[in-house]
Design goal:
The complex is a heterodimer of chains A (126) and B (110). With 126 residues, chain A is mostly beta strands. Chain A contains no helices and eleven strands. In chain A, the strands form two sheets. In chain A, strands 2, 4, 5, 6, 9, 10 and 11 form a seven-stranded mixed β-sheet that branches. Chain A is globular, with a radius of gyration of 14 Å. By secondary structure, chain B is mainly beta. Chain B starts with 8 loop residues before the first strand and ends with a strand. The chains are: A mainly beta (126), B mainly beta (110).
């Protein structure tokens, strides 16, 4: 059974870089899936941060693109998130997830997250 | 403000049926597949429906999904107290080039 577990500091100072790691167990990160990060700010809904394929191709939320990097480490079966220049608005629960992302011949996009970690709370505060 | 619009809350009695709506536009729901998630705070969100109406293995047929035009609906029959959770719809927005979610609907089983 596939399991994902987020890890990283729970407190980050403003202007610094938030760094999280997602460890995948029960399956290979080099399989035919994408790997994504999603966050949920207090009292708000889900926000997609970005997604990476194990080969290295990535796509990011345009509103965060200038500050986000996602990296996959196939040797450790992990992928990571770095979000730079954080402010209080980046305080959220951060989830990692396995993702299906396929553009059908019709042009319609299959886009969903089929396995999630339980999330980790990151607070941005001095 | 979320790109997809859901009602903030719905409620129904045990054993009854409830539906949760998700409204979008032609650039997201209208032309792409919709998924639905169940989330109990503090736990991992769970995929309930993908590709508009498909259930992953292990998801009971009490949960169903449908789509019409630029709106999608999640249906839950035979409500149980264990169904109390937040429910989110999601899809890809081809114009914004962005994965989008609804704001979430809190289900209360009275």
């Amino acid at each position: 059974q596939l399991e994902l577990q987020e890890s990283g500091p729970g407190l980050v100072k403003p202007s610094e870089t938030l760094s999280l790691t997602c460890t995948v167990s029960g399956g290979s990160i080099s399989s035919n899936y994408y790997w994504g990060w999603i966050r949920q700010s207090p009292g708000k809904g889900l926000e997609w941060i970005g997604t990476m394929y194990y080969s290295g191709s990535a796509d990011y939320n345009p509103s965060l693109k200038s500050r986000v990097t996602i990296h996959v480490d196939t040797s450790k079966n992990q992928f990571s998130l770095k979000l730079s220049s954080v402010t209080a608005v980046d305080t959220a629960v951060y989830f990692c997830a396995r993702q299906r992302w396929i553009t059908a011949y019709s042009g319609r996009v299959e886009y969903y997250f089929d396995n999630w970690g339980q999330g980790t709370l990151v607070i941005v505060s001095s | 403000q979320s790109v997809l619009t859901q009602p903030p809350s719905v409620s129904a009695a045990p054993g009854q049926k409830v539906t949760i709506s998700c409204s979008g536009s032609s650039s997201n729901i209208g032309n792409n597949y919709v998924s639905w998630y169940q989330h109990l705070p503090g736990t991992a969100p769970k995929l309930l429906i993908y590709d508009n109406n498909e259930r992953p293995s292990g998801i009971p047929d009490r949960f169903s999904g449908s789509k019409s035009g630029t709106s999608a609906t999640l249906g839950i029959t035979g409500l149980q107290t264990g169904d109390e959770a937040d429910y989110y719809c999601g899809t890809w927005d081809s114009s914004l080039r962005l994965g989008v979610f609804g704001g979430g609907t809190k289900l209360t089983v009275l």
